[in-house]
Amino acid sequence: MKMYHVLFAVLFLSPLVYCAPHEIKISAELENQVIDWRRHFHQYPELSNREFNTSKYILSQLAHLELEVQSGVAHTGIVALLKGAKPGPTVAIRADMDALPVTEQVDLPFASKQTTTFNGQEVGVMHACGHDNHMAVLLGVAHYLKSKQANLAGNVMFIFQPAEEGAPEGEEGGAALMLKEGIFKEKPDAVFGLHVTNRLHAGQIGYRKGPLMASADSFEITLTGRQTHGSRPWDGVDPIVAAAQVVMATQTIASRQIDVTKAPSVISYGAINGGIRSNIIPDEVKMIGTIRSFDQDMRADIKERLSFTAQTVAKAQGAHAHVKINHGYPVTINNPELTEKMLPTIKRAAGEKNVIEIPLVTGAEDFSYYALETPGVFFFLGITPKNTPLDESASNHSPRFYVDESALKIGVETLSALALDYLQSN
Ligand SMILES: [Zn+2]
Ligand SMILES: [Zn+2]
């Protein structure tokens, strides 16, 4: 009897409480508007923590939506809240705002001609990572969801975030600073975001459950020995041989010391500098490098092991190693339950065959900070034209990075669907 009742409830009552998932198709008018926004951002890019005009422009385009707007967050950031007509949870959606010191080589009527000074050099400025698209898509989502406000059960927080590429030397910025300034004081229940990529074709979406992008920490090792004649090494302490041993020994952290079945990791050296002449053993060698990992505990462990290994290997040679670790972005982790739950929404919005599970990405993202605070899903939106082979497309950060704008519509529809479905299901 009991079983029968359950069945009855499932078969007959559930349609009464279950609302059909949102079918989202934005109008041609909104799509054109999104493309116009993107072209404006593209033509007038600004570097990290210098997104002054970008910020003003976003504010002007949000003005008539009557959102609760906070500006000047983390220097130039904006947080805008859309309050639904009915109570419910809050979802956050994030777009980053900054461009790169790259001189554009794409022949477009709206190509960037902007220049500025960066690290004492005159440089071109370009949205070579595609953050212009992220901002335009988020403006599109804000406009689309505003039109649904009367039916919205909950709130949507739009985060326009400066300095994803990293704040200038000596400055704070990005997601970490926005959080430090309290944008999650009232924590949203979920956070979504996307990044455009040349590694997928326009129309495609790349997703992954659990760790998606690596943590990125950099390090500086200074090895101090004692300078002497190259013909008489026993009179001094050779920091070059010590450096060679440190390089090799630290490679065994990933290959011999850490559980390779748990997650991969990478230690790479980017520069080794020391010495001046063939027959002088120098006093000092400086080395810099980067650490990537896909697990927050492993990340902490690797950093400790790197310091320990460098110090003890140097000591065995009579040299001294000073290790400085610069803590960078955490691992970007897509909450497994939330990813599972929202995957049907992504597939419905972008088309089942266009949604692809992608391998781990060893690049890093400061979206990771939000996703450590509240369940997050971050995914990739393809922008390479369908007739361009992926291995011939220019990568993000290239002066030839090119975006097929037909992808923008899919970005707006997918993020809008995620917000609406999430709010409806809670
Ligand atoms: Zn980038
Ligand atoms: Zn980027």
Keywords:
alpha+beta, 2 domains, Aminopeptidase, Alpha-Beta Plaits, 10 helices, elongated
Strand content: 25-35%
Specify the overall morphology. Answer: elongated
Cα distance, first to last residue? 31 Å
Q: What multimeric state do the chains show?
A: single chain
Small ligands present: zinc ion
Q: In CATH, what is the class of the largest domain?
A: Alpha Beta
Number of helices: 10
The tally of domains stands at 2
Plain-language structure description:
The protein is of the alpha+beta class. It is built from ten helices and 18 strands. It folds into two domains: 20-212 and 331-425, Zn peptidases (Aminopeptidase, 3-Layer(aba) Sandwich), CATH 3.40.630; 215-329, Alpha-Beta Plaits. The protein has helices at 2-17, 28-43, 52-62, 131-146, 174-180, 239-257, 296-316, 336-350, 367-373, 406-425, and strands at 68-73, 77-83, 86-96, 115-118, 121-124, 153-161, 190-201, 205-207, 210-213, 215-224, 228-229, 265-273, 280-281, 284-293, 320-329, 332-334, 355-357, 376-384. The two termini are 31 Å apart. 46% of the residues are buried. The chain binds zinc ion (2 copies).
